[in-house]
Design goal:
- About 75% of the residues lie in helices and about 0% in strands.
- The two termini are about 30 Å apart.
- By secondary structure, it is an all-alpha fold.
Length: about 80
């Protein structure tokens, strides 16, 4: 896989902790692994939300109960996105 050099600004204390945890494999490898994990987690969250959206379309639940569920789902989406 091709690599690309980038410049980012990160919190100093977090970088120092990451350097210590990365050890001999190096900071770049550590951050690359963390980025891949975050991307995978975001993809799973997106897929789950899409799944819930599809379920809502075919849900036989009464409209008032659906409205309450949509309010709760919106609150969860805000927490996940925030």
């Amino acid at each position: 896989m091709a690599t690309q050099k980038v410049s980012v600004t990160l919190e100093g204390a977090a970088i120092e902790r990451a350097r210590q945890l990365a050890g001999p494999r190096g900071l770049s490898s550590y951050l690359d692994d963390a980025l891949h994990e975050k991307l995978a987690r975001d993809a799973r969250q997106t897929a789950f939300i899409q799944f819930l959206d599809e379920l809502e379309k075919v849900d036989p639940t009464p409209p008032d109960v659906q409205a309450h569920g949509r309010e709760r789902a919106a609150a969860i989406r805000r927490r996940v996105s925030g």
